[in-house]
Amino acid sequence: MDFAFGPEDERFRAEARDWLAEHFIGPFAALKQEPGGHPGEARGDMTARRAWERELGTGGWIGLGWDRTDGAYGNRAATLTQQVVWAEEYARAGAPGRLGHIGENLLAPTLLAHGDSAQRARFLPPIARAEELWCQGYSEPDAGSDLAGLRTHAVRDPGEGTYRITGQKIWTSLAHEADWCFVLARTEEGSQRHHGLSFLLVPMDQPGRIEVRPIRQLTGTAEFNEVFFDGAVARAEHLVGGAGHGWRVAMSLLAVERGVSTLVQQIGFAQELSRVVRLALETGAAEEPVLRDRLIRQWAELKAMRWNALRTLGAAQKPNPNPNPARDPALHPAPNDARDPDARDPASRKGAAHGLPPGSADPQAPGPQDPGPRDQGAPSVAKLLWGGWHQRLGELAVQVRGAAAALGPARWTAGRPYELDAFQRLFLFSRADTIYGGSDEIQRTIIAERVLHLPKESRR
Predict the structure, then answer these.
(1) 418 versus 429: which is more confidently predicted?
(2) Per the CB 3.0–4.6 Å rule, which of 3, 186, 227, 338 could disulfide with 153?
(3) What does the mean pLDDT of the chain come to?
(4) Which helix (H) or strand (E) holds 168?
(5) pLDDT in tens, 250-275
(6) Residues 374-401: tens digit of each pLDDT
(7) Rounded to an integer, what distance in angstroms lies between the CA atom of residue 138 and that of residue 227?
(8) 271: left (phi over 0), alpha (psi -120 to 50) or beta
(9) pLDDT single digits (tens) 332-351
(10) 202 phi/psi in degrees, rounded to 5
(11) pLDDT band with cut points at 50, 70 and 90 for residue 32
(12) 290-296-302 Cα angle (round to 5)
């Protein structure tokens, strides 16, 4: 696989680096990403973070790589390697986690694949300009690993031409900040499992019909939420992919969150590891042979993950040799954060953070523009690798500090009773890495049953 950066890519890199140097200054510089941070976190000045999103939109840096067949939607064209270049420069600049991640990287590709021209014209430009933020309404209290068992329902009012949505979603990232939510709901009475579901675009500003309740985390922040719908209204023209075809749309959406984003994540991991290594050198912890060996292993494993991600990304760009994509099972892999319709994983059901469910897509559901890798097991392998790696890094971060890791960065006060430093946040949040986005148990089941073709486990 040839994944070299050419002259055009390096010119693009220089442009990206210069733009970030010119714009990521002043009040925006205070938003610099710290170890343990993640896109959905609720820390920092949210007004400033929204302003930064608009700055990116004005610069045309939102939506790189979107299909431009029907229009540019306010962004700029970029090849796959240029998308990687931008992601690398953004991460290296320490720019903050993206509030617009869900709209830009999940909803937009889904509308390009399944939406109609009116939906794309209505929703893509505001996403590209960072004028509207989105959240994802998938997870439910009793439908974590088992997304197909969701109970939220939507009833069509033929007179008004609207849907009325009733139900509850959970682990919904930044729902308290979002302007819109894409909701997977049951629209066919009496339907079961993945049949009879629809994908609806719902405005969040509906007092008395939508209630958002933050969920406090170990880190002290509350970026995840419960969302209660009580007759919330969605317009019929905001139904994506047709009534009853929500499962196909939902699985296509979950399949897009891999590839370039995996490499971006690893750049952040490398920065966190560098900070931990520097801390180990400063404290003398690196002199301990066992701890030094663990640091070296972390470095080597991160290199292996990068090459694996590049291999997977390269394979996903190759032409499909199968002339009938609807019959090609490799086009319907188990995405690393989709829920397995047959699995029952209580841990994942309680901890599917980011509103992204663990498991896999229905192999019978066609996905017209599934950009996933040809290797069915690649997403599950990647999730197993990075989840465990990042969790071990969090453990190292506090281990190299020794007893000092038990102390907060500031004295306790009544006004600020729960303060953590960056490494403590890294340790605490990374405890969820092997649960959210597809628990380790779910990923191993996918690999065993769908790649190795081992006997299926009992699901009674």
Answers:
(1) 429
(2) 186
(3) 78
(4) strand 162-169
(5) 877 765 555 556 666 787 888 889 98
(6) 566 777 888 888 889 999 999 999 999 8
(7) 11
(8) alpha
(9) 333 333 344 333 333 333 33
(10) -125, 125
(11) confident
(12) 135
Phi-psi region of 438 (alpha: psi -120 to 50; beta: other; left: phi over 0): left
Helix, strand and coil percent figures for the chain, each rounded to 5:
45, 10, 40
The helix/strand/coil state of 120 is helix
- DSSP secondary structure string for all residues of 184-246: EEE-STT--TTTTEEEEEEES--TTTEEEEEE--TTS---EEEEEEEEEEEEGGGEES-TTBH
33 CB contacts (<8 Å, ≥6 apart)?
91, 94, 95, 96, 97, 268
Please state the length of the chain: 460
- Residue 135's φ and ψ, nearest 5 degrees, are -130, 170
Stretch 52-75: mean pLDDT: 85
Q: Which amino acid is at 143?
A: A
- Of 247, 253, 255, give the one whose Cα is nearest residue 380: 255
Q: Which amino acid type is present at position 68?
A: R
Structure tokens at 379: 């997403």
